[in-house]
């Protein structure tokens, strides 16, 4: 589903180019559930931003289902992302003036009668246990409920790829565990490929596969060499 080749990303810090990511080769199979862990600043969010087209690589190739994404123009990226990639963030990023239902509806692509749209959103809200919260504003929802709405918003167009960046980072452990279950259950039932960046080891341990991302600058200082950037941490058969 996802294939990355010779990917490099640098950022300018004080006028100096600092390499952040260097990934010779990385493949993610269709339907795979993958957690990515690593130290703060190692480039986990940058990697998700590159995969979702929010950032562009300096070099390298990114393919999704064989389609070269590194060649897409900005406007093409927006359309591609809307149909193919769901993105869940730590801080939900719901629009405060819209209800839970409207926050989901606004993300929906494709034309359909408003009745059909409403029924679809209500079905999703029910799946995450929020059937009686559709007309609540984000401020009237708990943090866990807000994250559920954000997950529904990310999945409502049934994207083949679901990305989540620290989706449990600001939640208590019990709610975090529920959100981890929800992401794994919903992505499994919809056959979505799921890539989650997390510091939450409890969450990472629930995934069949876990990659560790090294901080290449720290590693280079310590060893004098540039290691492979992504390392398989755990892989069990599913
Ligand atoms: N726009 C930018 N300009 C310059 N440097 C940046 C930019 N975005 C990120 N960086 C730097 O790139 C490195 C990787 O950042 P990134 O946010 O990807 O790390 P992370 O592994 O997700 O960290 P955390 O776990 O703390 O969220 C950091 O050193 C960060 O300061």
UniProtKB/TrEMBL annotation:
Keyword DNA damage part of the UniProt annotation: no
Keyword Transmembrane helix annotated: no
Keyword field: ATP-binding, Nucleotide-binding, Transport
Segments forming a coiled coil: none
Any one GO MF annotation of this record: transmembrane transporter activity
PROSITE patterns (alphabetical): ABC_TRANSPORTER_2 (PS50893)
Pfam family, one: ABC_tran
Record-linked InterPro entries: AAA+_ATPase (IPR003593), ABC_transporter-like_ATP-bd (IPR003439), ABC_transpr_LolD-like (IPR015854), MacB-like_ATP-bd (IPR017911), P-loop_NTPase (IPR027417)
Residue span, ABC transporter domain: 2-238
Gene Ontology, cellular component aspect: plasma membrane
Name by which UniProt lists this protein: ATP-binding cassette domain-containing protein
Lineage of origin: Bacteria, Bacillati, Bacillota, Bacilli, Bacillales
């Amino acid at each position: 589903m996802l294939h990355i080749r010779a990917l490099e990303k640098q950022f300018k810090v004080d006028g100096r180019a600092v390499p952040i990511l260097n990934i010779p080769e990385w493949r993610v199979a269709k339907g795979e559930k993958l957690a990515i862990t690593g130290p703060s600043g190692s480039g986990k969010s940058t990697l998700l931003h590159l995969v979702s087209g929010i950032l562009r690589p300096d070099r390298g190739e990114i393919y999704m289902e064989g389609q070269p994404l590194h060649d897409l123009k900005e406007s093409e990226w927006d359309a591609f992302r809307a149909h193919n990639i769901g993105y869940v963030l730590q801080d939900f990023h719901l629009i405060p003036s819209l209800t839970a239902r409207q926050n989901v509806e606004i993300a929906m692509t494709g034309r359909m009668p408003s009745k059909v749209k409403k029924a679809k959103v209500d079905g999703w809200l029910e799946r995450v246990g929020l059937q009686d919260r559709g007309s609540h504003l984000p401020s009237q929802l708990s943090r866990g409920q807000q994250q559920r709405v954000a997950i529904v918003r990310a999945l409502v167009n049934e994207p083949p790829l679901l990305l989540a960046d620290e989706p449990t980072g600001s939640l208590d452990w019990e709610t975090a565990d529920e959100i981890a279950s929800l992401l794994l259950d919903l992505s499994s039932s919809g056959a979505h490929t799921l890539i989650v960046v997390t510091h939450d080891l409890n969450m990472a341990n629930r995934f069949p596969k876990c990659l560790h991302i090294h901080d290449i600058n720290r590693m280079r200082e310590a060893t004098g060499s540039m290691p492979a950037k992504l390392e398989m941490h755990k892989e069990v058969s599913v």
